[in-house]
Amino acid sequence: MEYIVLILSGILFATAIYNILQKQLLRIIIGTVLISHGAHLVILTMGKLKRGQPPILDESVTSYTDPLPQALILTSIVISFGITSLLLVLSYRTAKENNTDNMEEMRGESNE
Amino acid sequence: MSNLAILPIIIPMLSGIIVAFTNKNVKRTRILTKLFVIISLIVTSYVTYVVFTEGSIILETGDWVAPYGIIMVADELSIILILTTNIIAATAAFYAPHSLSLKQENHYFYTFFFLLITGVSGAFLTGDLFNLFVFFEVLLMASYALIVLGGERVQLRESIKYVLINLFSSMLFVTAVALLYGVVGTVNMAQIAERVAEVDQKGILTTIGVLLFFVFGTKAALFPLYYWLPRPYIVPNPVVSALFGALLTKVGIYSILRVFTLIFTHRPDITHEAFIWIAGLSMLFGVIGALSTNNIKLIIAYNIIPAIGFIIMGIGIFNKDALSGSIYYFVHDMIIKSALFLLVGVISYVAGTSDLRKMKGLIHYYPVLGWLLFISAFVLAGIPPFSGFIGKLLLLKGALSNDEVAITIIALLSSLLILYSVMKIFIRGFWGEKDATFSLTKKPAQGQIIPIVCLLAVSVFLGIGAEYVYPAIDGIAEYLLDPEIYIDSVLKE
Amino acid sequence: MLTAVLIPLIFAFFVPFISKYKQKVHTGVFVLIIPLGIFLYFIQFIGKDFAPFIHEYSWIPSLGINFDFYLDGLSLLFVLLISGIGTLVVLYSIFYLDTSEKLSHFYVYLLMFMSAMLGVILSDNVFVLYTFWELTSISSFLLIGYWHHRERSRYGAQKSMLITIFGGLSMLGGLIFLSVITNTTSIRAMINSMDEILNSNYLPLIMVLILLGAFTKSAQFPFHIWLPDAMEAPTPVSAYLHSATMVKAGIYLVARFSPIFHAYEWFFITVSLIGIVTLVWASYMAVRQTDLKAILAFSTVSQLGMIMAMLGFGTEAAVFAAVFHILNHATFKGSLFMIAGIIDHETGTRDIRKLGGLLTFMPMSATLALFGTFSMAGVPLPFLNGFYSKELFFESTTHLNITSNTFAATFADIIPYLAVFGSIFTFVYSMYFFFGVFMGQKKLDLLPKKPHEAPLGMLLSPIVLVLGVIIIGLFPNIVNGTLLTHAAKSINGNVDYHAIQFWHGLKPAFLMSLAVVGIGTILFLTIKKWRKIYSVIPGKLSFNELYDKTIDITDRYAKRITNFYMTGSLKLYMSIILGAIIAFSFLIMVTTDGFSHITFNDLADVEWIDITVIIVMALAAICTIFVNNKLSLIIITGIVGFGISILFVIFRAPDLALTQLVVETVSMALFLLAYYHLPELRKRNETITTSASNAILSLGIGTIITMVGIAAHSSDWFETISDYFVETAYSLGGGHNIVNVILVDMRGLDTLFEITVLGIAALAIYALIKVRKNKEAE
Fold first, then answer.
1. How far apart are the C-alpha atoms of B15 and C509, rounded to whole Å?
2. Cα–Cα distance between C228 and C163 in angstroms, integer?
3. Residue B373 and residue B341 in contact, taking contact as beta carbons nearer than 8 Å
4. CA distance A28 to chain C (A)
5. Is A90 in Cβ contact with B174 (below 8 Å)?
6. How confident is the model at residue C126 (pLDDT cuts 50, 70, 90)?
7. Where does C495-602 have alpha helices with state H?
8. Is B107 close to C771, i.e. CB distance below 8 A?
């Protein structure tokens, strides 16, 4: 199972990168969303999957899944969300100001 | 007592929140800001004093013992960098009102400024790898906000590239932390170090180490990861450029310094050897970049890259002299870079352009600016008796004791070119005939000059007064060479 | 001695205040006290029984950087030159520089230089020496650029700075090398442990690094090119820095280190060869010049070459001749520079083609120039000091005992001929200078000003120097035992006192002198006929052009290289970064054998529902690449996001699943908001190569993540620290939901700052939107 999930993360990373390498802002932002999904799956897998019950203490349960990765993912999800929202507003403003959503048209002057 | 360690984080954070509420009244915000930076400076000075007299301060947050809770480690390295950060913050806070537009100040500049400092201090202090990621995000988020402040077209354009590249490297960062957790089962840096040492840094660990290196290297703007740096650094206000130039890349290089002296130290034949090459290439490409442009702000921005090269060179060589050289250079470069960014900010303000080809004879009108630039150029290039020299001397001594001749020659050559790139501004912009068409409407305010003078004074002191500083730095290098000290102090074994 | 070195520097701080009264009293009058005082202080040490001594002051003892000032014969000679000539130059400048000039700047730089130069000479500590060394370069830079409104001044200043600081840095490399090898920073201690240096593998490199410093400073071939351009400085500066003192710092350095290196035969070869080539080339080139100061500049270069060569020979006679010539050169060249300045001042030009027959107008200057030029030419007359040292030079060229190396031996054989050749041209340009200016036709109509004799004050300094020429010429032995022997002895310990005599028989040296005068006279008389040769050699070849080209190429290529990759294209930046990550990571994986311990033991079961979700997600992710409709793109991305929450449920992470669900929903809403404002997607019009490179980079990163992940998962060396959280979540944390306890308690700091991040983001978004509103309002 773990390896399959890791392959899925690999696919998420790959498609994310492919999107980030595009010209249009929207595609690039979608890329960043995918990459964070990929990263979160990696964190989860590193705590081993499906070992024991959900990490909520219960008298009858003796084994729990690793809670630490889950805590880390929670932090990371929130942060990613913050960045994605900022990025969305930023790209909207950028596209407006520069009259284009094509990154290749936003190279700026040559290195003078 | 150990709570002292969190003060450098908490004070700027609270200040940031407080000034967010006084937003409507700019005058009050300014006064509060100046007050808070001074308080912060005094407190960190005190903490520094305590650390140097009584040893590292370890704070187990929430009283959760290491390695389970998040640990704050105020050791000599962290605290000296935090002190430098606070000096820079103080000068920037005094410079800011003269340089920012009212609109920028109104749009929470001071809040973002304080939160940037929070993130930087946190990154220097934390002893937990995932927590380091969180602090990185704090300072990056603040930097995103600062870079777009004003919302000009170029700013937006450059900032989106900046955000995207940093976002990618942040995601790589969490992934690498996760992978490392998968191997060693912990995120506490001391424990990671201990466990990595136990299995002798097996191949997979080195690979993860390299991934981390790329994360930090992208933030630190090392060859070949620095492409994103020069332009986003010059579009915002000079104060912001100064903060970025002095602090942001330095957090990246600090992380490399920490991680590769504490954790991944067992395969220097692979990692540290590569650092030396990367150092050389960073120096060369950095100065080539600096020579390529006539934009005075860009000249300074490119000069960040060779400086980072110097620092990583010391980490690569990895002996006592070289490491203390790195640390010395580190502090030196934070100071001089912020001074230079502030300075070119004033220069391009009074000249009305940052294009060197449109300037001449400025010294007839602005002798003070001219001489400040002149001195800064020598400080930057590491000409004695200024601060850069001590760092460079130590680095080269370390390099030559390890028979690293090639990098020594590259370092010397790039020093020359660094000097040339900045001196060009002096020779072409300040020397020359009086420009008769020049309108003398803009005058630099005292408030802009004094912070620069203060920074240069610190720099001169670091050079001439090296006797008061060097023994401490030497001690840090020795400490870094023996990761056991750090591990023991955190894990209390 | 510390006081002596630093007092000019300290005094420099007060100069700007003093110069406020420059209209009443020339600032130079106050400055004059400084060098004079230093001169008087040091002159007391002259004497037959002078013994070297050291004064130590600590500065940065923990780095071994201290002001250890060592006064031996060699440094005494230089110190007296610096302060003595310094006094005369300041005196001269009082009459040369008008009070309308920026006198404070001039004297500040000059005093700075004086300190620096004294520091170079007296420091026994290599790093202090280097500090002062760079300070001389800096003050020289400022003095050359004194009239910086002139294009040529700026050019000359930049050139001198680049070349001398290049040399300085290279010397620094050499010095650090030496201090690492010998584990000391004191030159005297290094000389004591010279065996370690001579046995080092890096000996050739060290020597080259140090010599580069010396050669650039002393304007040796091919670094001599900066000196003629340095003549843009005011004449007192040329006389002082660029003839008598600073350019001799390189000579000093070679002299100082020759006890270490002279046992190494390549030292002999390099230094003598460069010295002789410089002597020949520069004296040859001097005849080509038309600017008086340029003639003197090339002459200085060639004389420095001669001294350098003698230091290269290293024999007792040569070393003695070298120190003697250092002194003599300072006297006659100093006076000639001052005369050139006077001519410039009184006629308005330095172009020798416009000058001529000035003897009648300026008899006093002419007389002084006569002594100066004839001494420089080495005319055998008993009252010209230049003759003595030149004769000693010739003699030393005929007594080189080289036996070890055949190349060195052959070279030693031709040295006398080269020496004579160079000296012939020295004779020619000396005559050319004197006769061209003071004799021949008067060309008054070409002169900007009507010439007349200079005021006495201006003539005072050259008079003193010419008196020096004559007195040393008549009684050479008054400086011999008291000063020169001591100086030579500190370079070569075997030197003993020998009286200097005017006539010492019909030896080869005297014949060489006669040949120089004879052939020189013929050449000078026929100068017009053979002058065309300069269009053949060097013709268009010039090292100046090489320098200009180098600067130009540096600028141009820097631009080209940087523009090549700094295109501002995000895609390119990302591609380079990704490429580097992929290449390095794979390389490290392979070399460290990181992927070889894969096990399939410790894995969870796979159920059909897991597989279905995963396949759907993977397909959706791949679809994002190919979709060309923005709404579909957003929805497909949503599918991936919701898929993640399902996975969280499957993998026993209920909190995560909930959070993800909420965040995903909010994000979708945000995306749909942005949907309105962002333009429709376009088809990806990419070339196949672009698509391919994108694909390679994407797959590369994906593979690395998967591979490293699998390898990391396969390792089973350590237990995770999580058990502790399970154990203490309730007992210490007081909560049943372990994840929540971790978040708010154990890792509460993470959560605090995670909220901070969100807060900043919110504030930033608010600011961004407000800016827009303000803009639209405007």
1. 84
2. 13
3. no
4. 10
5. no
6. very high
7. 508-525, 527-530, 543-565, 570-591
8. yes
Among the partner-chain residues B130, B151, B157, the one whose CB lies closest to the CB of A108 is B157
**Which of A 36-75 lie inside 8 A of C, CB atoms?**
37-38, 40-42, 44-58, 64-68, 70-75
Give the tens place of pLDDT for each residue, C212-262: 999 999 999 889 999 999 998 999 999 998 888 999 999 999 999 999 998
Give the closest of C127, C169, C748 to B61, CB-based.
C748
**Domain A2-50+65-103 belongs to what topology?**
Helix Hairpins (1.10.287)
Q: Where are the alpha helices (DSSP H) in B292-404?
A: 296-302, 304-317, 320-351, 367-381, 387-401
Cβ-defined contact of C760 to B434 (cutoff 8 Å): no
> Is B369 within 8 Å of B343 (Cβ atoms)?
yes
Contact B141 C757 (CB under 8 A): yes
Indicate the helix (H) or strand (E) that contains B133.
helix B129-148
Q: What pTM, to 2 d.p., does this model score?
A: 0.93
Give every CB contact of residue B294 below 8 A, 6+ residues apart in sequence: A112, B355, B356, B357
Compute φ and ψ for C232, nearest 5 degrees. -70, -15
User: In terms of CA atoms, which chain A residue is nearest residue B289?
Assistant: A111
Tokens representing C12?
Answer: 């420099």
With 50 as the cut, is the pLDDT of residue C431 above it?
A: yes
Residue C571's nearest CA partner among A106, B350, B264 is A106
Q: Are C363 and C443 in contact (CB under 8 A)?
A: no
Q: Which two tokens stand for residue B333?
A: 């470069």
Q: Please indicate if any CB of chain B lies within 8 Å of the CB of C162.
A: yes
The structure tokens 């008079």 sit at: C463
Q: DSSP character for C483?
A: I
The single residue listed with the structure tokens 């970025």 is: B244
CB C299 within 8 A of CB C286: yes
CB contact under 8 A, A42 and B231: no
Residue C447 CB coordination number (10 Å): 18
B142: confidence class by pLDDT, cuts 50, 70, 90: very high
User: Dihedral (C-alpha) B51, B54, B58, B63: value to the nearest 10 degrees?
Assistant: -130
- Rounded CA-CA distance C269/C411 in Å is 8
Which sequence spans correspond to the domains of chain A? 2-50+65-103
Give the contacts of C554 (CB within 8 A, at least 6 positions apart).
Answer: B291, B417
* Residue pLDDT, tens place only, B12-22: 999 999 999 88
